[in-house]
């Protein structure tokens, strides 16, 4: 089964300093048909105005990944984790039994554009933890790179779930394939640019979910902008 989720169909919240699009139900946006995809619970595309952000707030028992597309995102938590994420960088925060953190635009002049991703963990009440990793865009230009995994292999972020996050960037005419397995589920999210997935045209913010599917998935970059593709490999 394949399910298309277009960018235009997502929930949209605009509140002054925040412009956010929700792939799945989140906060004031609730749609019982879109509560998540397996353990993938949240993909929010956020644009935060200069100098603004989310003040300290708490989370528990959730794996939270932030991926900056443009600008800089400043993170600080009550367990000593802090840092500024730039474009192409990812941060993992394992909320575990409880953590409080803040996220602010690191700039007073330009907006920050990023994805916030939540994945339900495969265990509860683990110790909170934090990690940050920069990935060279050229290392995933035209080929898959593992950005997050259960064991942190190859310099990926280690997360507490039997899930993998793969990323690739494709210019026009560049393509990759990915072998789908029927005992896994997948979520493909186009973060930036335009691409064709098995001949289907996708624009930034569009996504396709796969469950009980097998065979090769072919993704090709089209247009002038480089396509930034995220593929979540998830347990059923």
UniProtKB/TrEMBL annotation:
Coiled-coil spans in chain? none
> Domain named Quercetin 2,3-dioxygenase C-terminal cupin: which ranges?
147-234
What are the Pirin N-terminal domain coordinates in residue numbering?
9-119
The record ties this protein, via InterPro entries, to: Pirin, Pirin_N_dom, Quercetinase_C, RmlC-like_jellyroll, RmlC_Cupin_sf
Domain of life assignment: Bacteria
* Family named by the database record: Belongs to the pirin family.
Q: PANTHER family, from UniProt?
A: QUERCETIN 2,3-DIOXYGENASE (PTHR43212)
User: What protein am I looking at?
Assistant: Pirin family protein
What species is this protein from? Answer: Luteimonas lutimaris
């Amino acid at each position: 089964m394949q399910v298309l989720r277009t960018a235009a169909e997502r929930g949209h919240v605009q509140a002054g300093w925040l412009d956010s699009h929700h792939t799945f139900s989140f906060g004031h946006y609730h749609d019982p048909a879109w509560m998540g995809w397996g353990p993938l619970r949240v993909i929010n595309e956020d644009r935060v105005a200069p100098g603004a952000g989310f003040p300290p707030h708490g989370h528990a028992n959730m794996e939270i990944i932030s991926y900056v597309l443009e600008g800089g995102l400043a993170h600080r938590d009550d367990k000593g984790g802090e840092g500024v994420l730039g474009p192409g960088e990812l941060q993992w925060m394992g909320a575990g039994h409880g953590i409080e953190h803040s996220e602010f635009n690191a700039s007073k002049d330009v907006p920050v554009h990023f994805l916030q991703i939540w994945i339900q963990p495969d265990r509860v009440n683990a110790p909170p933890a934090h990690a940050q990793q920069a990935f060279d865009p050229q290392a995933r230009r035209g080929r898959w790179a593992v950005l997050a995994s259960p064991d942190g292999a190859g310099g990926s972020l280690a997360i507490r779930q039997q899930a993998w996050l793969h990323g690739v960037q494709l210019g026009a005419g560049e393509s990759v394939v990915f072998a789908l397995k029927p005992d896994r589920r997948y979520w493909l999210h186009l973060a930036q640019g335009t691409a064709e997935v098995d001949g289907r045209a996708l624009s930034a913010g569009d996504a396709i979910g796969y469950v009980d599917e097998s065979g090769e998935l072919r993704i090709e970059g089209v247009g002038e902008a480089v396509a930034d593709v995220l593929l979540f490999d998830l347990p059923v």
